[in-house]
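ok so dumb question maybe but i'm new to this and my supervisor (M.) told me to 'just get the structure for Acetyltransferase, ribosomal protein N-acetylase' and walked off. so i did the thing. is this what she meant?? sequence i used:
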Amino acid sequence: MLEGKLVKLRAYSKNDLEKVLEYINDEEVRKNLMPGIPYPFRMEDEEKWYEKLNPFGGGKYDFAIELKKTGEYIGGCGVNEIDWKNSVATVGIFIGKPFFNKGYGTEAMKLLVDFVFKEMNINKVKLHVFSFNQRAIKSYEKVGFKVEGILREQIFREGKYHDEVIMGILRKEWNK
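this is what came out, is it supposed to look like this??
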């Protein structure tokens, strides 16, 4: 378990699935996560995803985010891809709408990045974020991520095209 002042990152429990489904099916949360059509998930989809979680990782690690004070599940984060040869990990995060703008996501991402650098011995952590998700971009910048590139008009959402922003942080920047 990884602990900060506000949140903990822990293994997922089957008891989290109902809240996962509730949060991920919120329109505002979902539109920021999926490059495809943001179609709602079913409980069957979440159960299949849960059954595929591997505690041995193999480079992919999924963490539930819970409030330290109450133990309440508020979102998830994890290492989604790993390029061992080039020492690059791709991460992602989502927070339930009731927990936006409270610093929980920023702290969870700091814990995740620290885990990747210290436990996985990775040189670079990167992520992708849609340009309309300014709240997330500001949070990632607080963690230390820098914009590395823009995929212009990469995503079609709500009737128009938007850019996809690629952000990254190097181990030497994290260690400063």
